[in-house]
Design a protein that fits this description.
Layout lengths: L1 H35 L27 E10 L9 H15 L5 H17 L8 H17 L9 E6 L3 H17 L5 E4 L5 H4 L4 H8 L5 H11 L3 H7 L12 H14 L15 H19 L14 H16 L4 E7 L1 H11 L14 H4 L2 H4 L5 E9 L2 E10 L2 E3 L12 E2 H12 L9
Parallel strand pairs: 1-4, 2-3, 2-4
Antiparallel strand pairs: 1-5, 5-6, 6-7, 6-8
C-alpha cells in the first residue's frame, strides 16, 4: 500500500513538472472568471444568475411549443446543517476563552455570531433568495411559452422527499399559477419518485466512499493546493491550545464553505475578505475536484456516474412520448439536488458537462461546478410541433440558456428532431455509459 501511495505521489509530481506550462495557459480563463466574480468560488453554493437573454428561440415557420420537460435543483439554501456553522464557531469560542484571537480573529468571531443568530434552525431550508428564484424561473418560463400553460394543459410536478425540494416545487408552481390561476398542476413528493429522481447505484456509492478509489490521489492534490498557514496566523495568535482535533486545512475548508454560502442568505455580511484570491481559487479547485469525481464523468470513475441518471432519463423519454402520442399540451417538472442534475446533464450530453478528464490537474479546465450545478440550476427541454408536419422538434436550455448536444446532429440548431434525440438517448439506456477521455 505504501508503494502504491509513493507511485501516485511520483506520478503527480511528473504531471505537475512536465505539463504545468500548458496547464497554466489553459487554466487562465477559469481563474480569471473566479477572480472577477469571486462568488463563483462557492461552486455548488454559487447563487443562480439571471440570464441576460431570456427570449424564446424562434422555431421554424408553423411550429409552436406544446410541452416542456424540466429538471431543477432546489433554490438557494442555508448550509445543510447548523452543525456546519457551529463547528467553526466552536473553534473561535475556544480560542476566545484562551485569549488567542488576533484582532481580525475577534472581528470574524463577532461576524459569525451575528450570522448564526440569523441562520440558526434553518439548516438545509430555502433562503428568501431561494424562494424568489423558484417563482422567477417559472414566471419567465410562462412568459416565454404562454401557449404551453393553457387551461387544459396536463401539468405534473414531482420532487424528492427533502423539504427544500418540496418547497421549491411548490413555489415554482405558485409562480405559474400567479400567471394563470386556472392551471391544474398535479404535485407529488411521494417516496416512490425517489427511485428515479434521486437514484444512485451501489457501485457509485461504494466508489465515492471507498478509501482506495479516488481519495489517495485527491489527498495529494489537496496537500499541494491548500496552504492554511497564512489564514490561521491571521486569526489566531497560537493554535497549541485548540487541541489535537484542530486541523488547519479542515478548518479553512469549513470557513470557506460558510463564506461561499453567504451569497444565498441575503445577510449583509461577507467572509471573503479573509481569503486571498489564489487561496479561494485553490479551495474551489479542491471542491470542484471532489464533485467531479464523485458525481461527474472524471475518467477515474469509468463513466459509472451516468448510470445514476438513467432512470431519470427513462422517465423523461416516457413522459414526452406520452404527451406526443396523445397530442396533449403540458409540462413535466422535477425537483432534486446537485447530485442529480450533474449526472443527468452529462447523460444528456449537454455541451460542457460530460468531458471525461484523466489528469486531476486539468479537471478545472474542463468541468466547473458553478456552471453545472449552481443553486436553482435547471434543464429545460422545450418541444415544438407543426399541425401539418410529422416531425416534433426540441430545443435544450441549461439555466435558461440555449445549449447544444454535440453527439446529436441537426441542421436546424438550436432545434433537434425529437426522433433523433430519442434514438440517441435510447441507445444510451441500452449500454454501459462510457465516454472517451480527453
Amino acid at each position: 500500500m505504501k508503494i502504491s501511495h509513493n507511485l501516485r505521489r511520483l506520478s503527480l509530481i511528473f504531471w505537475i513538472h512536465v505539463f504545468i506550462p500548458n496547464i497554466l495557459v489553459n487554466a487562465q480563463d477559469v481563474r480569471k472568471e473566479i477572480f472577477s466574480t469571486i462568488e463563483k468560488s462557492g461552486g455548488v453554493n454559487f447563487a443562480y444568475t439571471i440570464p441576460n437573454d431570456i427570449e424564446a428561440n424562434v422555431p421554424p415557420s408553423g411550429y409552436e411549443p406544446f410541452y416542456i420537460s424540466h429538471f431543477g435543483r432546489h433554490g438557494s439554501r442555508y448550509l445543510v446543517s447548523d452543525k456546519e456553522y457551529l463547528k467553526v464557531i466552536n473553534v473561535f469560542e475556544k480560542a476566545d476563552s484562551e485569549q488567542i484571537l488576533t484582532p481580525l480573529g475577534q472581528d470574524v468571531f463577532n461576524r459569525l455570531k451575528i450570522i448564526y443568530s440569523q441562520v440558526e434552525g434553518n439548516g438545509g431550508e430555502l433562503t428568501p433568495l431561494g424562494k424568489r428564484q423558484m417563482n422567477e424561473i417559472s414566471e419567465r418560463m410562462f412568459e416565454k411559452y404562454p401557449n404551453v400553460f393553457i387551461q387544459n394543459a396536463q401539468i405534473t410536478a414531482v420532487s424528492t422527499t427533502v423539504g427544500r425540494c418540496i418547497n421549491s416545487m411548490e413555489l415554482f408552481c405558485e409562480g405559474l399559477r400567479e400567471k394563470n390561476p386556472v392551471l391544474n398542476i398535479n404535485m407529488d413528493s411521494h417516496e416512490n419518485h425517489m427511485d428515479y429522481l434521486n437514484h444512485h447505484t451501489s457501485q457509485a456509492v461504494q466508489f465515492r466512499y471507498a478509501k482506495d478509489t479516488w481519495l489517495p490521489e485527491y489527498e495529494l492534490f489537496e496537500e499541494s493546493h491548500i496552504i492554511p498557514d497564512r489564514l490561521i496566523k491571521s486569526l489566531f495568535l497560537s493554535v497549541e491550545h485548540l487541541g489535537p482535533e484542530f486541523k488547519p486545512s479542515s478548518f479553512m475548508f469549513d470557513l470557506f464553505e460558510i463564506a461561499g454560502n453567504m451569497q444565498n442568505t441575503m445577510i449583509d455580511i461577507s467572509l471573503y475578505d479573509l481569503f486571498q484570491k489564489e487561496e479561494l481559487y485553490n479551495l474551489w479547485q479542491a471542491k470542484n475536484y471532489q464533485l467531479y469525481v464523485k458525481y461527474g464523468n472524471a475518467a477515474i470513475n469509468g463513466g459509472m456516474m451516468m448510470e445514476n441518471a438513467k432512470p431519470l432519463l427513462n422517465d423523461i423519454l416516457n413522459k414526452a412520448e406520452n404527451v406526443i402520442s396523445k397530442n396533449e399540451v403540458g409540462a413535466s417538472f422535477r425537483f432534486g439536488h446537485d447530485g442529480n442534475i450533474v449526472p443527468l446533464a452529462m447523460l444528456l450530453h449537454i455541451q460542457g458537462t460530460y468531458n471525461s478528464v484523466a489528469n486531476p490537474q486539468d479537471y478545472a479546465n474542463f468541468w466547473n461546478d458553478f456552471k453545472v450545478a449552481p443553486m436553482a440550476a435547471n434543464i429545460q427541454m422545450v418541444f415544438y410541433r407543426h399541425p401539418e408536419v410529422k416531425d416534433v422538434l426540441v430545443t435544450f436550455l441549461y439555466n435558461e440558456q440555449t445549449v447544444s448536444v454535440p453527439p446529436i446532429e441537426t441542421s436546424l440548431f438550436p432545434f433537434y428532431k425529437w426522433s433523433d434525440v430519442k434514438t440517441f438517448y435510447q441507445s444510451l439506456l441500452q449500454k454501459p455509459s462510457k465516454v472517451p477521455t480527453s
